Amino acid sequence: MTKEEPHCVYLVGAGPGDPGLMTLRGRELLERADCVVYDALVPRVMLGWCRADCELIDVGKRGERHILPQEKINSLLVECAQRYVCTVRLKGGDPYVFGRGGEEAAALQAAGVNFEVVPGISSAIAGPAYAGIPVTHRDCCSQLTIFTGHTAPEKGDSLPEVAAIAATPGTRVMLMGVSRLADSMRALQNAGLPGDTPAAAVQWATTARQLCVRATVATLAEDVRKVHLSSPAIVIIGDVVRLADTLDWRRRLPLSGRRIIVTRTREQAGTLSHSLRELGAEVVEMPTLRIVPPPDKQAFAKAVVNSPHHDWLVFSSPNGVERFFEAFFAVYEDLRELGGSRIAALGSGTAKQLRKRGLMVDVMPQEAVAEELIAEFDRKADDFGGLANSTVLWVHARQARDVIRRELDKRKAIVDECIAYDVAPGDARYASLLLEEGADLITFTSSSSATNFVRMGLSLPEHCSVASMGPVTTATLKKLGMPPTLEADLHTIPSLVEAICRWAGTTSK
After folding, report:
1. What is the per-residue pLDDT across 383-426, written as a single tens digit (0 to 9) for each?
2. Which fold has domain 125-250?
3. Which of 22, 46, 174, 176 is catalytic?
4. Does residue 176 carry a catalytic annotation?
5. Which listed residue (18, 22, 39, 91) is catalytic?
6. How does pLDDT run across 430-462, given as a tens digit for each residue?
7. Own/partner pairs, 108-115, CB within 8 angstroms, 24+ separation
8. 185 counts as catalytic
9. Which class in CATH covers the domain with range 259-288+427-506?
10. Domain ranges of the chain
11. Per the confidence metrics, is the pTM higher than 0.85?
């Protein structure tokens, strides 16, 4: 008899807003959590890392609006610890930096509940960094003071320790104080802080919505009012603010300030997401489809077993390669059992998956379009004596267009089909959470990703542009009433990224 796993509550810092700044430990816990209790400022994309059966509980607080008061949140965590082995309390920033994590830890300790604290990157550090402001610099200061502009009600409305803060040298970072910014700046000046001290306010730090206002202690409140900057925001005070003119690295990236939704499956999203992030975009992966087993598993297995008897293996997608070889090595021990089959791949992503298995590709079109694959077969026909009487195993998804089979039949090839997987709609609950936050652009790289978007009952966020991988996807989008704003010149990820950069350069943020 195995010992029962102890129940534990993990106080996890979600970081300042950019999902890429979540710690590895934090993501690991989200992926195995039974229950997640999360705050309003937690990036919704992080909830997509959770298991489908994970209970999600929103206890968000924004300003004076509370879904649950803190005392009830404390009690809720104790209750969750009794019901679930792994409960994650997901908090914006760091749990112990004005996040009331200390109060929650104390409540858990008093109730005899096991808990662990997983620190997060605080907006007090990350916010200035993403605005080009280092909180310390040898030429400016070697001291950092972090304080809150929002005190507990029983302590009154005055800025805490105002005289000490005004007299403290170095950089000062104020959290949760934008709603009373004018009063706080006035109090600091009255306490002796010069009005011409550089100051900045950063809203929605590290996200595509980031807005930075730079001014002085005397003028910051009015400048913030003019641009309607509100919470969540941080305020930085000190000479380091002047460095933002030269150190604002993010503003120089071509996709800075853009929130882009990628609808590919999680297995395929990596290349596109990475390219867009490197160019400064805030990328949200929202799979509108998921890969599931083929409808006829027996027929799939039979096709894989007989694959070595074919002259050609034609793979239509990276997912097809993955599923085919999972089944292949369940039967055969050695790749050489594949025999002397030639290999054709629809697109560079499919070819990349084949190369991982030590297989070079004989035929691959420049664009991942079925018609182009057939054209490439025709161009190289003299190299292999044509397709007449050749046996071909076509590995594809159930929803694949019939172009490849039809055209190979015309060329007198003997075609067998291997339906390696099916495509089902993604998680509509998770997708809806993401769409609530809005986006500048949503990308569709296949007809199935667009079709399943509609099947999930989703609609485009307001003012959201649409990007298409190519003409086939564009035709589908038009039929669905979502005509694309831009289309890749070639049916490739690099071409789609280039088209997105051109779009970003001609549209206002």
Report:
1. 888 899 999 999 999 988 899 999 999 999 999 999 999 988 88
2. 3.30.950
3. 176
4. yes
5. 39
6. 788 778 888 999 999 988 899 989 988 888 988
7. 108/9, 108/74, 108/77, 108/78, 108/81, 111/78, 111/81, 113/7, 113/8, 113/9, 113/77, 113/78, 113/81, 114/6, 114/7, 114/8, 114/9, 114/81, 115/8, 115/9, 115/10, 115/11
8. no
9. alpha beta
10. 8-121, 125-250, 259-288+427-506, 292-424
11. no
